[in-house]
Amino acid sequence: MISFWTPERAEIVVELAGMGLLTREIGRRLGCTRNAVIGRLYRQGFRMRNTPEPPTIYDRLPNVNTGGCRWITGDVCGGEWSYCGARVAQPGGSWCATHRGRVFDKRKADV
Ligand SMILES: [Zn+2]
What we know:
By secondary structure, the chain is an alpha+beta fold. Helix content is 34%, strand content 11%. It is built from 4 helices and 4 strands. Helix 2 (23-30) crosses helix 3 (34-43). Bound molecules: zinc ion (ZN).
């Protein structure tokens, strides 16, 4: 059985959580349940924030606003990572054209 959490999905879930997306929304984009997202983020060091609002995830990543692409390259858990940094596709956007395509690409759980 192949794990749902491919390295690519693991990267995307962290990226979307870093944007402050709700776990429910992350699950919808990745094609898994909210609980699966929460479990995965928990294992990656994220902790849920308990507020009267719908729960969101703490942004563990440094809030660097370089104006460049925020796609993460490298191993977030191992501490060896950096942002892509390429020019973003749209003003105020988070990713370059390539990585934006990867994040918003419709994904199926059975790949
Ligand atoms: Zn990029």
